[in-house]
Amino acid sequence: MNAKTFAIIALSGAGLALGPGCGETQPTGETGPGLAIAVAPLSLPGVTDACYALTIFAGADPTTGAVVWTKPHVCASQYGDGAGAIAYVGTCDASGGGASSVRVVVEDICQGGACPATPGGATSIPTSTWHNPCAGPDGCVKTATCSADADTPVSFDLTVARTATQGFFDVAVSFDDIFCSAKLDCERDGGPLELLFDPATGERGQTAVVGLACTAGPSADTWLYYDNLVLRCYDAGDTLIGEWPYDPSLGPGNVGAGAAPFVFQTAVYRTTEQIGAVSSWNVAFGLHPADMPGRCVLSTRATASDGALTGNSTADGAVYPYIQWEVELSSAAGTLSCTSHELDQAGSGVTTEYARTGSETFTHGMEASSAPTVASVGRTMCGATIASLDGLASFAVSPEGVTARIASEQSPFYTLPAGLELGDCCGDPCCDGP
Hints:
Elements: E1 3-10, E2 35-39, E3 49-58, E4 67-75, H1 76-79, E5 86-90, E6 92-93, E7 99-110, E8 130-131, E9 140-145, E10 151-158, E11 161-164, E12 172-175, E13 178-185, E14 187-188, E15 191-192, E16 194-197, E17 204-215, E18 222-226, E19 229-234, E20 240-246, E21 253-256, E22 263-272, E23 279-287, E24 295-306, E25 318-330, E26 340-342, E27 350-355, E28 364-367, E29 374-376, E30 393-398, E31 401-406, E32 409-410, E33 421-422, E34 431-432
Parallel strand pairs: 1-2, 1-10, 10-25
Antiparallel strand pairs: 1-6, 2-5, 3-4, 3-7, 7-9, 8-11, 11-12, 12-13, 13-17, 13-26, 14-15, 16-17, 17-23, 18-24, 18-28, 19-20, 19-24, 21-22, 22-23, 24-25, 25-27, 28-29, 30-31, 31-32, 33-34
């Protein structure tokens, strides 16, 4: 084995972040070139120590590559600044082309002193109050080339989501310096939630509400992001009957039944409160339970940021939290099985997840303001915000297809033929080949 070097760094804003650099290194006692691993100070409130397990594999696939070395319990109190930063030096394997895999597992985050030898001790921050972005055994893995006579930096960019309770939140999840709550409700006080008016009867009917609320603080620049909300139904053999996407950038207010045959009305609500600067983006579905064609599931994703995400996308390679809804509305045809689904409660289908590779793009984004407006991926200058369309056509791109909109009227979602993509259009359709 040829011993060469990598440099692995972890940085942090208000969470964990791994990025390039070396920091202060500590010798391992090995001779020859080494792998320099550093973790920058954590700025999570109250953190006094953090521990990581480090493993280097020969080859690009850690599931098949031999372990070059592994080191558990690498803690800031012993290998760093005593507040979350570490530095460690080890070797990598330059044989076989030099492809190697680097795995980081976050073992423990502590306050009030150094982390204990075994996670879960007196100083350990309870794991129920934070979501581990690099949990064992798989952790977070990146590949790099172990080059002869050269140091190769390997960058990890992590953010830790921590739970919190605020006066107006049921459950709050911290995204960096942002607190969010989310849920899906089909009932109220143990009975059906009847909110939207059914045009056929003029009476309120069964309603499912998808709720999202976030704040980055009174003086911060809070942004919320959503994908389309998709309803999918399956028959008794779990074969897909149909899927119907809904655009949360429509509205605000009632925006029609959409395409799903069991939906009688939808509505979108976007607000920013003056107290606490909490912004919410909620979508309601009026449902006819008797018309449910089978097992039906509502799916979508959302996230938040302090400041706009470039192109509605998380940073490439960043480990960034988002909220996932994967909620069963009906368990069989002609039924409604959804109840109250709170964030990160067992079996709720509303969960905190992490984007771990590449970048994640969300179709729609909203900047918090007294009159929130929405910008969608693919909309050009004439349709950057819904409020300013002035009768011109605009187009949006999503995983569910391309839509066209004139004022408040929007087309269905269309899949472009292979080889065509939406160009920079304004007013006239313009689908150009690559």
